[in-house]
Amino acid sequence: MRVFFRMIAPMLLAGLAGCAAISYAKDNYAGISPQQYKAANGDRYTIYDNIAQSRLMIGPAGSASATEGFVKGLGLSSTPPVVYRDAAEQYLRSTERNCTAQDVTLILDPRYEVRYRCDRTRGPSDVLLGPARPG
Hints:
With about 140 residues, the protein is an alpha+beta fold. It has helices spanning about 1-30, 65-75, 80-95; strands at about 35-40, 45-50, 55-60, 100-110, 110-120. The chain contains 3 helices and 5 strands.
């Protein structure tokens, strides 16, 4: 009986973690349109940019299969988080924002969340507001 629980418990915990990750993604990225981005190295990513919370969710473009996630979970051909951080910073620069990634967290393999901080400067969208007025 103990052997049964030792084999089943990790699978149950993994399943619960997956549900929590899906709930987290829904809570933080619901209603945000995905952006397709091609990095400098040619890799393609799908990015959900939550500008209001200075975070984005990034993963490979297209849908990753459950098998790919399982293989990555075994440590085979896994993409290191730094690759996603670099792609996220490239994406942020492409939006003409001066932003830096603060941390990268695995949400649900192969999707990562990148929290970022931006310098507040006047950008192209601010032109619609007109010139700054002296205080």
